Amino acid sequence: MQWWCSAQGLPWSWTWRPYLGVWLMVLLIAAAYWRMYRGRSSGVEGRRLRIAAACAGIFLLWTALDWPLGTLAAGYLESVHMLQFLLLVMGAAPLLLSGVPAPAWTALEDHRRAVRLLRALTHPLVAAVMFNLIILVTHLPRSVDAMMYSQLGSFALDLAWLAGGLWFWWPLLARVPARPRFVPPLQIGYLFVSTISHTGVAMWLLLAEFPVYRLYELAPPLHWLRPVDDQQLAGGLMLMIGGPVILAAILTIFMRWYRAEEAESAALLTAKAAARQGGR
Predict the structure, then answer these.
(1) What is residue 181's DSSP assignment?
(2) Rounded distance, CA 195 to CA 131, Å?
């Protein structure tokens, strides 16, 4: 039994392989959320939605890291490796943040040192730079080919993706620290800037004529997909899944901004009408 999935150089088999480290990590995260929700209530509707988001995030995390996706991603298919990245960064990370209950955010606000540290680390500019840097470094051929052959290296890569996803979504979804100046136009700009490397890596994989990762080029052959086709599929997945997720986030922010502006305009007109009637 392996602790974490890594490239083994063995022919692919559909035999189930449990990974103790993955199961332990998922159970610890689930236990942390259970503790946050235990004995706390913040409105039935909001509570249910947050619990659903937390459960979905934990499920996506487990799906991305465990067999069979984790095994295929570690040493067989680059496209599955990319799908794993997308599940962690664009799926599990925002859902886990959305699943944190309101009382937990309130409790965090009481720790002033932690809030000050978070304010610096999760500043949108810092988050955008670090997220792009994590994407670039973890997709370099030297990084992938060197790290995926060991369980520790594979674990570090997966952890970097999850941490990068949380770092990326924190300024948008986390309630602490509060950022009243991070208004919707800036949020939309943040999303655009934060996906520069994302688009660049996708286009690089799509346009490369030869496999860029030795790991997947020399992997035990799977008859249904050639290495170059697998690489192009990986780039396509990055664009076809990552792009729509970011676009959906931009549209959500824009619609909330539009509705808030409409509500403010309606309230202003109502106040003016009331003032005119009072003047008469």
Answers:
(1) T
(2) 9
72 phi and psi angles, rounded to 5 deg? -65, -40
| Cα distances (Å, whole numbers) of residue 236 to 83, 186, 198, 223 | 10, 28, 12, 20
d(CA 70, CA 4): 9
Closest CA to 81 of 274, 200, 187, 235: 235
| Ranges in the chain, pLDDT < 70 | 39-45, 273, 278-280
Q: Which pLDDT does position 280 carry in this prediction? A: 59
Contact 26, 59 (CB under 8 A): no
> Could you read off the pLDDT of 223-255 as tens digits, one per residue?
778 999 999 999 999 999 999 999 999 999 999
Q: How far apart are CA 233 and CA 78, in angstroms?
A: 8
Gyration radius of the chain over CA positions: 22
Which of 135, 143, 139 lies closest to 165 in space, CA to CA?
135
What sections of the chain are H helices per DSSP? 20-37, 44-65, 69-75, 78-86, 93-98, 102-109, 112-121, 124-138, 141-147, 151-173, 184-194, 196-207, 214-217, 227-237, 243-279
0.85 surpassed by pTM: yes
> Considering the chain, what percentage of its residues have pLDDT values greater than 90?
79
Q: How many CA atoms lie within 13 A of 40 on its CB side?
A: 20
Q: Over the stretch 138-168, which tens digit does the pLDDT of each residue have?
A: 999 999 999 999 999 999 999 999 999 999 9
